[in-house]
Specification:
This protein is mainly α. The chain contains five helices and no strands.
Length: about 160
């Protein structure tokens, strides 16, 4: 494997590993809240604080496979740097969602909506990469440089709320 390809994959792998650490953090919050509420280990005591932490963790866990699939598809099929940047932004937004959910549930809404926008961006990057592959395969036209330029230009726009 050449150095450039390895570097591209390393960016995606770093974001993936950071997301694993974040999942472990969320799980530790659930465990801590469970022990704090009941003192006997992991049980569903029915407290509102525990329910909020548990639900926030479950919601984040439900979207995690979609995030990983979109991150790797966009990074491998289109451009790894904007995909990794979008992945980091998604992790930041997921943290904001989790913390917001622990307060009032309305505080988690901006994180949820922003996360949907990032997943859409990663999805569109994946579709552009697939379309470019088939344009090369059937017509011999390669738009890879144009697609990479566009995604590099658009990815900073993800910072706008």
């Amino acid at each position: 494997m050449d150095q450039e390809t390895l570097g591209s994959i390393a960016l995606l792998a770093i974001v993936t590993l950071i997301s694993v650490v974040q999942n472990a953090f969320f799980a530790s919050k659930v465990e801590h809240e469970s022990k704090h509420c009941n003192g006997k280990g992991f049980q569903r005591p029915g407290s509102s604080a525990f329910d909020r932490v548990y639900t926030a963790n479950q919601n984040c866990g439900h979207t995690y496979p979609t995030f990983l699939a979109m991150l790797w598809c966009a990074g491998l099929l289109c451009s790894p740097a904007p995909a990794a940047f979008a992945g980091l932004m998604y992790l930041f937004v997921r943290q904001k969602y989790f913390v917001g959910y622990l307060g009032e549930r309305t505080q988690s809404t901006p994180g949820y909506l922003f996360g949907k926008r990032i997943i859409l961006f990663l999805f569109l990057m994946s579709v552009a990469g697939i379309l470019n592959y088939y344009l090369i395969f059937f017509f011999g036209s390669d738009f890879e440089m144009y697609i990479k330029t566009i995604t590099n230009a658009i990815s900073p726009l993800l910072l706008i709320p």
